[in-house]
Each structure stands twice: as C-alpha cells, then as structure tokens.
Design brief:
Blueprint (H helix, E strand, L loop, with lengths): L1 H24 L11 H25 L3 H25 L9 H39 L2
Helix pairs in contact: 1-2, 1-4, 2-3, 3-4
Keywords: Membrane, Transmembrane, Transmembrane helix
Organism: Anaerocolumna jejuensis DSM 15929
Protein name: DUF4418 domain-containing protein
Length: 139
C-alpha cells in the first residue's frame, strides 16, 4: 500500500506542476500583441498534467498488479509526450533567451525525466520484486 500512496503522490505532484508550474512558478513568455507558440505548448502540457493526476488516482485504486503495471507504462508514455510537446511537436519561441526556452521547458523536461526514472523503477519493483515476494510466500 505504501508503494501506491507514494506513486500517487509523485504522479499527482508532477501533474500539478505540469498544470500550475508554467502559469505561476516558471512562467512562459508574456506577450500582449499575439499569442506565442509557447502558449500552446503550455496548454498541451496542462493536458499531460491532467493525465498524470488521473493516472495517480487510478494507480491508488487499482486492485491488481497487472493494472498497476499497465498504468505505469502508460504514465511513462505521458511523460515522454510531455518532453516531445515543447521539444518537437509544438515547440516554443525561437530565441534561446526567451523565458520558455531558458526556464519553462527545461523545468518540464526535468519533471518528466525524474518521473520517467521513478516510474521505470516502479515497474521493476512491481514486476520483479513483487513477483519474488509472491513466490517466497508460497511453499
């Protein structure tokens, strides 16, 4: 049960950072005249944040090991899309000195990479460690 709670916290916090971070903590470029490309990247990243929150809630309530394993694999996909949106799919401002390129996107990359590393470790834990624990309990 501790694994479920901890995973829910990690995915939930990263989801909240995806939703709130680019708007409040590490803001994107402010432009009054026209909407910049980085604005649309942040909008798409908010969708990734919602998916991460939902994955955390589903993981907390998942009953079987297989469901938790598949949710973990799906969450790695969400983190990868979170990297691809600003890096390649939508992008941001062309200048590397702009706030989106120097602060917002690197922050989202860091959150995604840490999330991928944690979730990969979680998959190893679910698949190998829990399997070994189950085989030791049965005589």
């Amino acid at each position: 049960m501790r694994n479920r709670i901890f995973t829910f916290i990690i995915w939930g916090l990263s989801g909240l950072l995806y939703i709130i971070g680019p708007r409040r903590i590490f803001k994107v470029c402010a432009s009054k005249e026209m909407v910049m490309t980085c604005h649309w990247s942040v909008q798409a990243e908010a969708g990734i944040g919602i998916l991460l929150l939902l994955s955390g809630i589903l993981y907390l309530t998942a009953g079987s090991k297989e469901a938790r394993l598949f949710l973990s694999i799906q969450t790695i996909g969400s983190y990868l899309i979170g990297i691809l949106i600003p890096a390649w799919l939508i992008g941001g401002c062309k200048s590397k000195e702009m706030a989106c390129q120097s602060l917002t996107f690197p922050s989202l990359y860091l959150i995604s990479i840490l999330g991928i590393l944690y979730t990969a470790g979680n998959i190893v834990y679910i698949y190998f460690v829990r399997k070994a624990e189950g085989s030791q309990k049965q005589p």
